[in-house]
Amino acid sequence: STMTSTPLNAALAAETKANPPKPVEVVRLEYAPLKYVVSKVSLDFKLYTGRTLVESVLTVTDYDLQKGESDVGGEDGLVLDGEEATVKLLELSVDGCEVALVADVDYILKPGKLIIKGDTLRRGASSNETVMVVRTTVEIVPEDNTQLSGLYKSGDMYCTQCEAEGFRRITYYPDRPDVMATFEQVRVEANAKDFPVLLSNGNLVKEGTCEGDTNGDTRKFAVWSDPFPKPSYLFALVAGDLGCLEDSFTTMSGRNVALRFYSEHKNVSKLSYAVESLKRAMKWDEDTFGLEYDLDLFNVVAVESFNMGAMENKSLNVFNTS
């Protein structure tokens, strides 16, 4: 793996900060399928004051093989989106490639993109039971993120907004809605006292206290798993000291779903109408469309500090109460 004290994309970031790119109009007719897509993803967030580390493990699939089609053309490589001015690329590796990857040979960095060459992916896969796996470690600073896009600190809590193109401000990823990947594991770790509530999409797999803490700073972790493929813009993460009102809903097939509404502690007493509204909406979906909720848990975060209005992330809705 390539681990340097200087981020791999530092020179590019300096260039971008000196000459910020102008917005580019994207036309639908220019759309083309990616040659390589991500089918599974694991993420590990370590939240510290003033910096957050994000480790990602991407399982990559050849689009042609997946769709059984002839060659789709396009770039022979995995094209990842990432904003270098926000996302510091600290480590990059491909499972099966023993030697550190070389810039411009194994991968290419250009404004807004990280491309892992097809030859590099295939070389790694040949030593890794034919599975293509790309790993990155990046550093971001949610406290400095004033765009309300990506992961940002708002008041005393961390929150995300990934629609439409916020995920590329969190880590390098094919940040487009046609890439549907299973977020198999999302681990979130933070200071236990300040952030007792750690949320992401899907079902809660486990949570607990981190071992081997530094400076007597007790840290907590939670691991989430969403079994259903989704695009990156529906990813969500919330970390904070929030109160909770819990209820449940029994689906039409008799499954019991936990409903948890989170807000600032002082506002928990105002959540019951929202809980009833959700239960009526879930019932209406079943009666009208025959649609049954597909997870064990439905989380809603209703806070004063979130500034997007509302965002319907899969199983972790966030809305503004103010």
Task: Compose a concise summary of this entry.
By secondary structure, the protein is mainly β. The chain is about 15% helix and about 40% strand. The protein contains 4 helices and 20 strands.
What would you note in describing this structure?
By secondary structure, the protein is mainly β. 13% of the residues lie in helices and 40% in strands. The protein contains 4 helices and 20 strands. It has helices spanning 10-18, 63-67, 118-126, 272-289; strands at residues 2-3, 36-48, 51-62, 77-81, 88-94, 107-110, 113-117, 132-140, 150-154, 157-161, 182-191, 197-200, 203-209, 219-225, 237-240, 243-250, 256-263, 297-303, 310-311, 316-320. The strands form 4 sheets. The protein has an 8-stranded mixed beta sheet. Strand 6 and strand 7 form a beta hairpin. The chain is globular. The chain starts with a strand and ends with a strand. 36% of the residues are buried.
In whole angstroms, the N-to-C terminal distance is 46 Å
Query: What's the count of strands?
Result: 20
Rg over alpha carbons: 20 Å
The total of helices stands at 4
**Shape verdict:** globular
Return the string of H and E elements.
EHEEHEEEEHEEEEEEEEEEHEEE
Largest sheet: 8 strands, mixed
Strand order of the largest sheet: 1-5-8-3-2-11-14-13
Report helical residue fraction. 10-25%
Strand content: 35-45%
